[in-house]
Amino acid sequence: MKKYLLKRVLISIATLLVILVILFLMLEFMPGSPFNDEKLTTAQIELLNAKYGLDKPVIIRFFNYVKNMLSGDFGVSYTISKNTPISTLLLSRLPISVTIGGQAVLLGTVVGLILGIIAALKHNTIWDTLTTIISVIGVSLPSYVFALALSYSLGYKLEWFPLLYSSKAPFDSSILPTISLSMFTIASIARFTRTEMIEVMGSDYIQLAESKGISGIHLIVRHQLRNALIPIITVLAPLIVSLMTGSLVIEKIFSIPGIGSLLVTAIQSNDYNVIIAIAFIYSAMYIGIMLVVDILYGIIDPRIRLAKEESHE
Amino acid sequence: MTESKKMEEKILSIRDLSISFQTALGRVDAIRGVEMDLYRGETLAIVGESGSGKSVTMKAVMGILSSNGVINSGSIDFSYYDNHEKIDVDILKLTKKHMRSHINGKHIAMIFQDPMTSLNPTMNIGAQIMEGMIWHKRANKKEAYQRALELLELVGITDAKKRMKNYPHQLSGGMRQRVVIAIALACNPDLLICDEPTTALDVTIQAKILELIKDIQKKMNISVIYITHDLGVVAKVADYVAVMYAGKIVEKGTVDEVFYDPKHPYTWGLLSAMPDLDTFDDVLYTIPGSPPNLSHKVEGDAFADRNIYALNIDHRLEPPMFKITDTHYAATWLLHEKAPKVEMPQALRDRIDRMLKEASDDGK
Question: What's the predicted TM-score (pTM) here?
Fold first, then answer.
């Protein structure tokens, strides 16, 4: 297992390096430059380019960037917030997106699993139908519809929760965005859990467990859920990433100072360093979560764990 | 025979059991009035085609009918000992919860057909064997571990300590079936139901598994019910045979009676369809047609349409069980006193005579 992990981490680092190269090339081919202001003269633009090292060839810039990055320096912002180090810019925004996303993941997974399990256990009853209806709504309606509905009803009419995000009451004001974000996850996980659970419940080994006399929570958790979880984790991974990296629309509706909105502004104004840093963080999170999922597979499914151990010993 | 019979103790008695399933195509009457008895220490084999209701009957005994199954009538009386006190229950009257905590695993255990799918892939086999014992509070963890080791050795698995940590996918089919048997035996059941225990196995392993079950049955004095369509298995292991067709028992008796003196035309068909080394025909006999669709009401004898010996009355009225001896019964109008004398097909007669001769030769 250790050998396997080491190999996976090395592959991840290589992948990130490749992503960085592609990012650099894509920005190189993007039209315009960070200094598009009409008031600037050609001489001034050249001066600015020289100041930030943008006059050098792309290969040299790439190596300079990697060198600086390894020492924790992601460069400075060119346009959005002039000369602010990227790390400062991100440190104030990233935690907010990750916190709200993380809450949404937690809520979505827990509620989704519970709904799915109930639907499967009460297969073909009113509970099952109810869960299916919730799932269909959750999957088909985009999250901003929930966001608008929730902020109108719970925020504006009932005044239970604040309408906008505020750094003074970060938890209270994150409840509505969390719920809106988690609806899709709840729906997908519930639907998937239901299908998987029903399939597992019809399997021979559940009949064997029942004929041993096993019943109740022990049967559900130890025998049914554990086997149903393997495919569920596969759909969970991309959901987690999309939630953690922040949603642009939700961030706009609740005016959350997260990184989703920052990325869009950065692309519009050619703020190279911000784009690279955020895209790089997205990739790193994705790769990291995939790694965690792979390890989780091993913990849950002995077939995968043992196969890995055998092929790496 | 009758004398000793009374001395023996009835462990399972099924009366007038009828079960139907609600399906997308309507109601299917899968079991239509099954009656069956089993005495302690004896072996009963239920034979019949696929869909004749063998497995459904036993799943009802086990309390693991699928959720769309409805029990229309009948009783399944089961008696067992708890702390040396004899307890009689009607399994059909028990709640699922009571069934799981008092009967399943503890007093009735089951071996399933396909060992490749009947073990939980995410639990190691040690845990799966120990689980039932710990669940029923028969043993603490340490005792359960010891007992699991013993069981693995009993079912012929070498290197038991190492195997306890293995997962199902690391074992072969024969080994897995041994594990399934060990799981079934974990709590010393009174009744062991084997649902085609050798069908999914290699021919070379089949005989070993049958021997193993027989051995254990002798050692632990448990009753065994085999569900099978393999008459070879029946001949090897059973004391009694019940032949099922379309949700009913059409003939039952001791293994000798059913094999050497079959009375029901369906049993004749089954026996004729069994290949053996002395048959020189080019084509193996098959029973014409296929079993009736049980989602329609069956008029008369369900087997009549496939039966070349069918009488007129067979199409109108269902035959009752006719008594041949104290232990041998068959449901066919041919046994009625007014029925024409019909003998079994000559080819089968010859084969049975040959088998009888071999048996008596072996006896010498």
Answer: 0.80
